[in-house]
């Protein structure tokens, strides 16, 4: 029996509104009550989620990070951290009240595929390693490929990794984890095969209350078949059944609505977990904390102080191996309409009533619906072409055998968007996304307005203060961090100004490895937390914004501007920014 935590369940308050809010969420969600943990587990070994912290960070100037004595094992420097929080943050794990007899069965549909191997199984193992999975759980891989349990385990074992900071017993944990993984061969549209899966799941569940999570890691044309079979032949008869659906959620408003309608024939909206893995990234999750729990930012968060906001995604590799999928979608659907727009919505939304999923998603929908239709003249598209550097030839997009030679599909796009509401009237929200560029990164850049009548404009010693405005950079990846560019005086007897970074670099501040986005999202789905998943009306609003633009680009057969593989992208992106009186922050000399 697993009867952990009765002593923890009495925690009802926290000094932080965020923590108390979240714990009330946990307490009120029946699915969380169904989680149980191994008996006798040491509190410190518990899933990190049970120790949510709100930590205040100090910043260091430039690269000289402030490192002082750690106040928590996760912190490298911590002059401003709140020690008393430590005890308080041993968050409630609900008294299981008899629910120790519950179990979670996770079925990865499409287990033989790329995403399953690359992300889903490793994330499940990381959750297991952290003690975040309930005591009774089983993982099933499901796909058409013929495989035995041992073959699945062998395949999965090749992709599992240990946390850099926690390698002890990792091998043993892998063995234990793999013993909980099984495989079932079946067609995605066969009720009979899902009935057979159901039978096997029941054997593992051993009469316990059963909760079932299906992760659809398959191409979108078979989503509905699989959902139909899973819901009719393999859903839980005693607990919850949830389905994680991977993007793409359609290609436009019409196909997305059709997909939603079909899914809703078999599932309620609250059973559908539409995943956008960017919402699971640490720095995206931190965006709301930064904004709403620091007095200094929210007052600046409007047209009054912000000149423009930039959402930038770039990859230094092409569509290698995924050209077939990509050519049908293109970069606007692949990155902008979902990942970047979701971040924009979180960035620009009004303060939600609470951290409850519905309150947050209500605000996101509102801001998405306030957006001005995107004009084609505010968009630049590009496609990478082959280039040779240092004797190495890098392929162009259409060199991919799965891509038609005359494809006009954009692998790069930049766009200026506007939110027609009181807070953001006339502020350009620039997006830029591209494959096969010079670097891999994802970031949010907030460029503030100029200081009116800046006294130092006259003797700034060569620095053009009209250019060097303050800029807040939230670097989602790599080298996660947040920094603020400020103007300061160069030390010395003269008066020369310089721009410096107040820098919170996560690797300098925290010793703990940042979890992969899929870990957070899988755990949320198991716990029934919907905050980071896309509700159908959000999806409708996102497609309503991009569908007319995509249609126009495709109908007009707009020719993309070609850019060399490994370059900084089409020059047109600079003209677009200049048209809106903006410079791309990632291309400035002092990034
Ligand atoms: N890979 C990635 O990095 C990302 C993927 N996604 C999304 O996740 C989902 C899975 O992606 P990924 O793993 O790359 O996909 P795969 O193309 O690898 O497909 C997954 C599995 O589905 C089965 N399958 C593939 N094609 C067909 C078909 N035409 N008919 C029936 N079954 C088929 C195969 O299993 P079998 O033959 O054994 O049945 C395959 O192993 C997709 O929706 C994708 O868009 C989203 C973000 C990133
Ligand atoms: O959804 C997608 O995301 C990946 C990039 O994800 P990241 O977490 O590695 O930044 C992208 O390569 C892919 O084209 C897209 O479908």
UniProtKB/TrEMBL annotation:
Compartments reported by the entry: Plastid, Chloroplast stroma
Keyword Oxidoreductase tagged: yes
E.C. number(s) listed in UniProt: 1.1.1.49
NCBIfam families: zwf
Alphabetical list of Pfam families matching this protein: G6PD_C, G6PD_N
Region (Disordered): 1-32
TM region positions: none
Protein name: Glucose-6-phosphate 1-dehydrogenase
Top-rank lineage group of the source organism: Eukaryota
Pathway info: Carbohydrate degradation; pentose phosphate pathway; D-ribulose 5-phosphate from D-glucose 6-phosphate (oxidative stage): step 1/3
Residue ranges of every copy of the Glucose-6-phosphate dehydrogenase C-terminal domain listed in the record: 289-584
Principal location class: plastid
Annotated family: Belongs to the glucose-6-phosphate dehydrogenase family.
Stretches assigned to the Glucose-6-phosphate dehydrogenase NAD-binding domain: 108-286
MF (Gene Ontology): glucose-6-phosphate dehydrogenase activity; NADP binding
Biased composition (Low complexity): 1-24
Organism: Brassica carinata
């Amino acid at each position: 029996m697993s009867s952990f935590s009765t002593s923890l369940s009495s925690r009802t308050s926290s000094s932080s509104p965020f923590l108390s809010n979240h714990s009330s969420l946990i307490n009120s969600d029946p699915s969380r009550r169904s989680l149980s943990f191994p008996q006798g587990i040491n509190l410190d070994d518990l899933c990190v989620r049970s120790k949510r912290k709100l930590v205040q960070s100090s910043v260091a100037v430039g690269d000289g990070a402030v490192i002082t004595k750690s106040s928590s094992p996760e912190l490298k420097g911590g002059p401003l951290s709140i020690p008393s929080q430590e005890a308080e943050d041993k968050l409630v794990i609900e008294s299981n009240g008899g629910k120790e007899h519950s179990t979670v069965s996770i079925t990865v549909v499409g287990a033989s595929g790329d995403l399953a191997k690359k992300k889903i199984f490793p994330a499940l193992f990381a959750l297991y390693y952290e003690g975040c999975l309930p005591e009774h759980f089983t993982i099933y891989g499901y796909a058409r490929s013929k495989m035995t349990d041992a073959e699945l385990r062998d395949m999965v074992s090749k992709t599992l990794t240990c946390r850099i900071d926690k390698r002890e017993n990792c091998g043993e944990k892998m063995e234990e984890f793999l013993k909980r993984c099984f495989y079932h061969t079946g067609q995605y549209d066969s009720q009979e095969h899902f009935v057979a899966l159901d039978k096997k799941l029941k054997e593992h569940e051993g009469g316990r209350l059963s909760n079932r999570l299906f992760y659809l890691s398959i191409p979108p044309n078979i989503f509905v078949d699989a959902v139909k079979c899973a819901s009719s032949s393999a859903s839980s008869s005693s607990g919850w059944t949830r389905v994680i659906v991977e993007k793409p959620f359609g290609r436009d408003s019409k196909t997305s609505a059709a997909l939603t309608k079909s899914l809703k024939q078999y599932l309620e909206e609250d059973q559908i977990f539409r995943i956008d893995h960017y919402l699971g990234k640490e720095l995206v999750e931190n965006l709301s904390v930064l904004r709403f729990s620091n007095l200094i930012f929210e007052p600046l968060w409007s047209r009054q102080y912000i000149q423009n906001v930039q959402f930038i995604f770039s990859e230094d590799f092409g569509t290698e191996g995924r050209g077939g999928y990509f050519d049908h979608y293109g970069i606007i659907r692949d990155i902008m309409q979902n990942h970047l727009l979701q971040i924009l919505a979180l960035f620009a939304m009004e303060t939600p009533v609470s951290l409850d999923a519905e309150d947050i998603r209500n605000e996101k929908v509102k801001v998405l619906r306030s957006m001005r239709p995107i004009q084609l003249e505010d968009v630049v598209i590009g496609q990478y072409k082959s280039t040779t550097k240092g004797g190495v030839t890098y392929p162009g997009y259409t060199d991919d055998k799965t891509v038609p030679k005359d494809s006009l599909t954009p692998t790069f796009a930049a766009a200026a968007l506007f939110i027609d509401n009181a807070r953001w009237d006339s502020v350009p929200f620039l997006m830029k996304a591209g494959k096969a560029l010079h670097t891999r990164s994802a970031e949010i850049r907030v460029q503030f307005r100029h200081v009116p009548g800046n006294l130092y404009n006259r003797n700034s010693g060569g620095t053009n203060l009209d250019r060097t405005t303050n800029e807040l950079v939230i670097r989602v990846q790599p080298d996660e961090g947040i920094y603020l560019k400020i103007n300061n005086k160069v030390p010395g007897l003269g008066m020369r100004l310089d721009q410096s970074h107040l820098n919170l670099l996560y690797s300098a501040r925290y010793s703990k490895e940042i979890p992969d986005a899929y870990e957070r999202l899988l755990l949320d789905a198991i716990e029934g937390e919907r905050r980071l998943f896309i509700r159908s009306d959000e999806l409708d609003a996102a497609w309503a914004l991009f569908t007319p633009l995509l249609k126009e680009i495709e109908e007009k057969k707009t020719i993309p501007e070609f850019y060399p593989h490994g370059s900084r992208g089409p020059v047109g992106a600079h003209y677009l920014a200049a048209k809106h009186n903006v410079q791309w922050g990632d291309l400035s000399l002092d990034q």
